[in-house]
Task: inverse folding
């Protein structure tokens, strides 16, 4: 599994996804092409039904394209079998979803630790790095609590820690603030911004909210399965909180 020579860490090349319902074909993504460079923060924004979530699943290797290709670090998802695709996702990509998907019987710490275990890494979990993540995400005092004992904002921050614990090169976030109020949304966006800036991870966020998308360095707008325009984020590089200030814990 040798990578091709490719500059962007994420590359969508004429990406198309068509769903078939009986004799009816429904195109969800139509010939989308773009690249994301290492360390970039890119947001894809569009209304419901625009194809952005389908694009997310294609970019994460969670569904196969009808036509076109997705390259991660120069590796074409289509060239991999199911086991290789799974290994590539585990080692290179951290996922953050709208639904927190935390295991209810485990503590916050347990949810983070199990994500590291199933990644298949041979080296032991770096406890100093876990402490750094917990501090950055302001969940240090909540690690022994189960999801039912955490607020929505705390659960999402645990989910971000779970996505980051394997030090993935890429973070893919699908509507990460969709289930949160404004206060919690701002805190989560700050965390994604900090992880991109301080940990050097390439971040691609899917959202229907233009204000959330504005923290990205680059915004791609989707409509009817196509990228219709691109612009710079109006708040790119702007800290959502005072430097070195702890985020609001809710």
Result:
């Amino acid at each position: 599994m040798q990578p091709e020579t490719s500059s962007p860490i994420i590359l969508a090349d004429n990406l198309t996804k068509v769903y078939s319902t009986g004799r009816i074909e429904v195109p969800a993504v139509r010939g989308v092409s773009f690249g994301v460079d290492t360390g970039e923060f890119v947001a894809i924004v569009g209304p419901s039904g625009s194809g952005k979530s389908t694009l997310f699943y294609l970019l994460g290797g969670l569904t196969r394209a009808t036509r076109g290709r997705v390259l991660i670090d120069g590796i074409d998802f289509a060239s991999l079998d199911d086991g290789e695709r799974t290994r590539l996702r585990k080692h290179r990509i951290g996922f953050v979803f709208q639904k927190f998907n935390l295991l209810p019987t485990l503590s916050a710490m347990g949810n983070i630790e199990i994500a590291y275990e199933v990644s298949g890494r041979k080296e032991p979990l770096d406890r100093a790095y876990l402490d750094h993540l917990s501090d950055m995400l302001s969940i240090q005092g909540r690690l022994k609590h189960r999801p039912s004992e955490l607020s929505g904002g705390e659960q999402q921050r645990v989910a971000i820690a779970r996505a980051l614990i394997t030090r993935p090169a890429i973070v893919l976030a699908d509507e990460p603030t969709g289930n949160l109020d404004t206060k919690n949304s701002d805190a989560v966006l700050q965390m994604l911004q900090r992880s991109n800036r301080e940990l050097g991870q390439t971040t691609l966020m899917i959202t229907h909210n233009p204000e959330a998308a504005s923290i990205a360095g680059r915004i791609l707008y989707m409509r009817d399965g196509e990228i219709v325009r691109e612009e710079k984020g109006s708040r790119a590089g702007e800290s959502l909180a005072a430097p070195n200030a702890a985020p609001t814990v809710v």
Notes: The helical segments are 52-59, 82-92, 108-118, 127-136, 152-164, 182-198, 210-213.
